[in-house]
């Protein structure tokens, strides 16, 4: 096996030709990549140059640094992923990235999460992706591209038929761009997962949820949908559930951090009695209370046999609702993951979940609580497990692909690249 090109040396040469100083952080990460020839030949590698790395000294990547880096990667066939999250890239850096995406034919995964890319940068990247035929997964999370930037991505999706996973969470999308994206996705065949978390909405009429629901009635490829912080209430939940009676593809629905109450969850409970597709339902940080938990438990105990993971943390549920959920797991053998921390535990609740864990019905790595005993009384402690605990960042002591903290990966709704 011949030796692959030395990325570090190429980077030094690129900096020299551009008359700019090298970034020691990039240089170090390229040196580390040079050590893995065998992996590069067989699988390709993802270069992880994340600006929030706490294990090595970091000098965050600038626009000028990116210009030198993409010059090195332009003809490097074994680099199939690039992680540039939490750096200081701006619209000028987006120019270099757009040029790279137009010319590169090997990159499958690109993470630009929480940089400083704005509307004009979003336009450049979106236009480059209209003709890119290889990128499968793009994270733009946290870049304030705004409503206009979202419109550029909607236009891109009209042409691009390769992209499978797009994350536009925390990007300040507006009503117009959300409706445009939903409209474009209606006949779309390639996008399997989309994140539209935390848009900036200035209306209580839930127009965007109506259009997303209309999209779900027709779309047959979308598997994963994140609608966190959409201020969704009963009207929006009704529209989504109406659509999901007809949808046969969606497996992961994230409605966390909305305004869903106990009465709204009754509608979801009725859906679960008939839906045979959903595998993951995230309702964290709503207000479903005891009655809502009981509605869900009735559907899970009597009818539903497809849901595998349910998250109801921080929902003001007390003993009645939590015990109902634990009882439903005794008859429902498909529900394997349940997350309940942040609710109101009494000793009866603690005993119920302790018995589920001790009997083996609920595996310790499939929930976010752990029982312990003090003076003969059972209590529950929090455990750092969840559906996607490492969505924003990964602690230095953990692995990004830890399936206990990121159970949605273990369930395989949409495989991470």
TrEMBL record:
The lineage of its organism: Eukaryota, Metazoa, Chordata, Craniata, Vertebrata. The gene is Lrrc34. This is LRC34 protein. Transmembrane segments: none annotated. Keywords: Repeat. PANTHER family: LEUCINE-RICH REPEAT-CONTAINING PROTEIN 34. It comes from the Eukaryota.
